[in-house]
Amino acid sequence: MKRNNDHGFPDRNAIVAFIKANHGNVGTREIAREFGLKNADRAELRRMLRELADDGVVKKKRHKISEPDSLPPTLLADITGRDADGELIASPAEWDEVENGEPPKIIIEMPRRPKPGTAAGVGDRALLLVERSEETEGPAYRGRIIKVIDKAKSRILGVFRELPEGGGRLVPVDKKFADRELNIAKADAQGAQDGDLVSIDIVRSRGFGLASGRVKEKLGSVKSEKAISLIAIYAHDIPLQFSPAAEREAEAAEPANLRGREDWRDVPLVTIDPPDAKDHDDAVHAQPDPDPNNKGGFIVDVAIADVSFYVRPGTTLDRDALDRGNSVYFPDRVVPMLPERISNNLCSLVPGEPRGALAVRMVIGPDGRKRSHRFHRILMRSAAKLNYAQAQAAIDGRPDDTTGPLLDPILRPLYAAYACVKRARDERDPLNLDLPERKILLKSDGTVDRVIVPERLDAHKLIEEFMILANVAAAEMLEKKSLPLIYRVHDEPTLEKVHALAEFLQTLDVPFAKSGALRPALFNRVLAQLEGHDHFPLVSEVVLRAQAQAEYSAENYGHFGLNLRRYAHFTSPIRRYADLIVHRALVRALGLGEGALPDSETPETLSEVAAHISVTERRAMKAERETVDRLIAHHLADRIGASFQGRVSGVTRAGLFVKLAETGADGLIPIRSLGTEYFNYDEGRHALVGTRSGTMHRLGDVVDVRLIEAAPVAGALRFELLSSSGETAPRDRRQSGPQRRPSFKAHPGRSPNKRKPEKKSGKAKKGKSKSKGAKGKAW
Asked: Which GO terms describe its cellular component (predicted)?
């Protein structure tokens, strides 16, 4: 035991060493016992632990203290302030505070003469090289700026509220500025009306009182659903317009021809998409392998639009695409990664038109395993444009005029090849969390019509498995050629999450015996034995939350969810920049002509790109989710007092988060409204437990609720509980602790505990939908 002052109080090093040695299984009580601290020392100990947590040296979660999760060597960070010495302090741009506690702090080391593009200030977002600090005082990490991505913005989005005397106030949409209303003088209102969604420039003021602003842009009435997606676009700084130079480059692009390409125009490739898709960037074909040494095997072709031919490295078009990182899909609009001339014209594989493509031809054995593959740069001509339900109906005996002639020569071989590939897929046993995805359908005026769950067909799974095969082939080919690439990686769950899951399953008397290496099959066995049981939705949610988040990386550490050693996104370069990098690398590796990955691209530079597009992907997912929340809250705003059935989708000290069965909307039942007794949060059981009655409300419970309040701009709903399928907790198993009684806040009603798997976002408006299994799946 190490002490360093007259009172015998342990120093920071000793406390941190003790926490590390016990791997997070300690709290204030254990630390005090270890160092012989009396009650009078507890206040000082809590103060020191708060400092350590604020500096990111330790992580405090609930009543346990542990080492903070390690940060990757390259990450995007927001510069949040300065320390007492004036040094810049940053925090990770993407950080789950519910899962990981307070974000760690990073002290920025600035050279005396910063390189161009690395001079930063408070409020900026920058790409950093990060490592653990050797200092025991201050932040746990130190970083060096590689590049400033975004400068601090002086523009805020909000709702204009008119004042009787003229002018008005701005109520910011972003919850970070929710308590910062701004004054707008009449001369600066630019004709804004009460309820208008506006962006304003902050006018610096030296006086007291509210800061003031000037309306820069009017975006329409917030009462219109068509303005809802604009809130997310502006709030998350998603680029809406392409630069004029990028538009000019797109318009000047010439269609691909046979020069430097193989002629595959006679291969009857077909596209299979949602019925309202506008762009068609992948096509498939399959036939039995005529090789007598592969009897029962197949040859599968996957052709992907040749975006690398049109979007060359270093062009303005390329820079705009990298800035966006990916397309963003909202129910009423799409913010594409590439201009329409590229995505919906030159790179859309429409029937009967010659189109450039990068194709992979794969030989599949009778056991469903890929035996070999080869990439080709081709000129193709799609034989047909089909939708999922149309292709499935033909196989199920209901062909139409389009699919009838294609049934025997094209569709049956495709489905036979899928049945073969599925054998290997089942043997591989990837994580089986096939959760339903809801889709919002809009009316012609942009209002919500209804929310549906599209049926999951074999046609979806067929495309998904063929895309996975193509992605694996791309990663294998580039590794074989020793070329740098961006992998799609998915880490295994942390031991902490696995242990938490095991403890939770124990409360349900569900065995969870982990032995040997962690594999998806372990989770699949749990799900399989509970399928059809009342607890299945609950366990599915908890298993989902135990998983890590997939990301892009120049370093390969495998894909846990798919149970694959190497995996790279290749199949959607129209909407994902990662796929474009892989296409360019293949062109370079195989000497396929123009548009190759430059020699200047190294694992180090691609690591920066991977960090950036991982953040843009999460930005898109968050924007899409918030827009759906706002649309549904707007849709339900005139149904205050109505009753709904739902399921508890999150449990926190704030209360219960409920997902409605009818619309999938999320809302809060504040803990204060659950009854007259106190409720304690039982983390192990994901439940709130009444201290007097033992009444237990837990994750997955079916509940009847009444809608009490709707805040459309924030996407928030508040419910009261009418009835529940919950149970009573045994007295000796209830967990006690302080109760919180928070008030309902009019901003995001989604549970902070809820982490969805990344998925491909669909365009739900007629004519603008795209949802294709693995090409956009979380994994």
From this structure: cytosol
Distance, CA of 300 to CA of 371 (rounded, Å): 11
Domain 12-66 belongs to what architecture? Orthogonal Bundle (1.10)
**Residue whose structure tokens are 């979380």:** 778
Phi/psi for 501 (5° steps) reads -65, -45
Q: Where in the chain is CATH 1.10.10?
A: 12-66
Residue 23: pLDDT band (50, 70, 90) is low
CATH class of 74-149: mainly beta
Per-residue confidence at 573, pLDDT binned at 50, 70, 90?
very high
Which runs of E-coded beta strand occur in 436-539?
Answer: 439-442, 448-452, 487-489
Q: Please count the CA atoms within 13 angstroms of the CA of 251 that sit on its side-chain side.
A: 7
Length of the chain: 779
d(CA 577, CA 322) in angstroms, rounded, equals 6
In the chain, which segments carry CATH 2.40.50.140? 74-149, 640-724
- As given in the structure block, the two tokens for residue 778 are 């979380």
432: left (phi over 0), alpha (psi -120 to 50) or beta: beta
Q: Are 107 and 61 in contact (CB under 8 A)?
A: no
Which among 176-190, 403-417, 632-646, 705-719 has the top mean pLDDT? 403-417
> Residue 471 and residue 570: Cα distance in Å, rounded?
5
Q: Give the DSSP H/E element, type plus range, for residue 643.
A: strand 643-652
Mean predicted lDDT score pLDDT of the chain: 84
pLDDT at res. 641: 95
**CATH class of the domain comprising 640-724:** mainly beta
Q: Which two tokens stand for residue 200?
A: 């304003």
Tokens for 357, please give them.
Answer: 């493509």
Q: What is the mean pLDDT of residues 709-716?
A: 84
More confident site: 635 or 424: 424
DSSP state, residue 189: S
Which segments of 260-412 are extended strands (E)? Answer: 262-264, 270-273, 282-288, 298-305, 328-329, 334-335, 354-364, 370-381, 384-387
Q: Which residues pair with 64 in a beta bridge?
A: 61
Task: Determine the pLDDT at residue 774.
Answer: 40
Strands 270-273 and 384-387: parallel
